[in-house]
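haha ok so turns out i had the wrong file open the whole time. this is the CORRECT one, sorry everyone. sequence first:
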Amino acid sequence: MITINDPYSSTPLNIRKREIRLMKLEHSLVSEPLKCSLHSYTIDGKRPEYIALSYCWGPKTKHNDIQLNGVTHAVGRSLWAFLHQIRAQQHHITFWIDALCINQSESKIHERNHQVEMMRDIYSSVRSVWV
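then structure:
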């Protein structure tokens, strides 16, 4: 079922096919909201090169909003600051960022568990890891 307020509904993961989501930082003006899009790919199949981001999430109470697949989505301030800086440098790169590429809602624990099991493959398939 597709939910309008769910940025993940348009990019479901097929666990049997070992899919992951990758996030692309879209072009936008600094005065506009940060815009990101998610796309699903099989980890073993054809997919764009991507960079994995490893960072400290920070407190859940402090956040900023981005547009994720056209839906307003809260992210921690440290992630927002990173995305804002990358956008300012006009780098529209494909990333794997756990906080965005894995649906973190309580109802999707099975998805989180599946993605955690794939972490070795996710990190061994990257172009680079940014810390």
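The first helix runs from residue 77 to 88.
again sry for the mixup
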